[in-house]
Amino acid sequence: MTRTVRVTADGVPLATDVVLPPSGPAEGPYPAVVIRTPYGRRAHRGEARAWAARGFAAIVQDVRGRYGSGGRWRPYAYEAADGAATLRWIRERPWSDGRIVAAGSSYAAYCALVTVLGDPGDPGGSAAPPDAVAVAVPALGTAETARDPSGVERLLGRAGWWAAHGDRADSDPEALDRRLGHDPDLLRHLPVAELPVRLGRALPSWPGIWCSPRADLVVRRAPGARTPLLAIGGTHDPFAADTLALWRAWGGPARLVLGPWGHRLTRDPGPGARPEHRIDLGALTVAWARAVCAGRPPAGRSGAVAVAGTPYWYPATAVTDTPARRIPLTGGPFDGALLYGGDFRADPEHPVRSDDLRADPGRADRALFVTGPLPHDTHLVGPATAELRVTADTPAADWFVRIVAVDPSGRAEPVAVGSARTARPPGTWSTVTVPLGPLARRIPRGTRLRTEIAGHHFPAHARNPHTGQDPVTATRLRPSGRALRADDCALLLPVARPRPDGARPDLSEEIPA
Q1: 48-96: per-residue pLDDT in tens?
Q2: Closest by Cα among 416, 404, 381 to 494
Q3: Are residues 433 and 420 in contact, defined by beta-carbon separation less than 8 angstroms?
């Protein structure tokens, strides 16, 4: 049975659902799992009942200003203090034995993490931390979700999220798609800061999301944590690199489960996912939570990573321990060649599109390299980067690198994409490093790897105006002439040795039941 109560945080009532195990309070007390979400607590009632059926008191709460909770909705502003107040409230209940698992995915994962790490700027938000934290596809802050590590603005994803959830008490998930149907040039509107005008509704918080650079505060504070962590992520999730960075930095026992999934995990399998990768993440999380609450937290840092295109799982340490292999874009072991674009023109009026994988030799808007057919299956497991020797005739420039796998039939599939931003005197040659995120996939024999170097990746990312102005407030665009030294450009790829036994690790051992 679900009971709705109000938990008060700094005088603000937070709507909170409580589901106790079927035996009821008389058989307690129980360990508790708490999920704090901006997406509506009622959407989690099935999940709450599942936790309760497994012996946990399940607490699901609307964050401040959303759905049934009072106060003003300001993303990422109050979660440490409100989470701390909720932990204190739980521990005061007669059905609570004091043990708490903080859990959640995406924004709710951030809510869970700051109940462990606290907020140095909010001394009133402190409380004894939870006993465990289980997070999936964590979204680690406003600037962290709005910008690549390079600082380049993520336009499409943020426009969609703010149109759906920003400055309102409820959600409208189809808001951006609906407006794009009426106004296809919506995301081309300048300045980007005035996007709400084209959306047709007030979004006073929209300009503010671009005001701060990435600080990565959660990852920077993670080494001080001692609470056991379970981190679940997908290599096709836009926040995959943040999930990996969190796991690597965490100071307490940490487990990672990384698969070929998108932001919705098993409901959104990415390219190369197989039936062996569709594990029951809910059951896995419950088993891990039980182990921690029983005083048997898994020690150290480990886990498993699924390799797309194979049935294999590698130990999670392979994601960090596989040495990078330098693959020149011309020549080299894969017989790479520059097809066109040693000099090209990055024109923000006609940007390279993120949603188009076609390679048209008539284009002059990118450089394109391609390898010969790979002579054998190649497993890439770990972070990838690109090194470019480049120059631009404008003081500001963005550099996007996209790797695409082209099979013998000509079918193209994205492998990785990354960005870098430079500010140099025009005509200055420099070496630019472009992070491409973590990979875990098999590239089949006979596949060609196509590497594109461009100045834009629109609409996924905002267009650089090339004037030195802020891309969010700029109203004037100019083209940028680019040149590169092909022989000095390379990919640094984590080429892993295939597992000789092809075995999937026993996750019940990696994460004990």
Answers
A1: 999 999 999 999 999 999 999 999 999 999 999 999 999 999 999 999 9
A2: 381
A3: yes
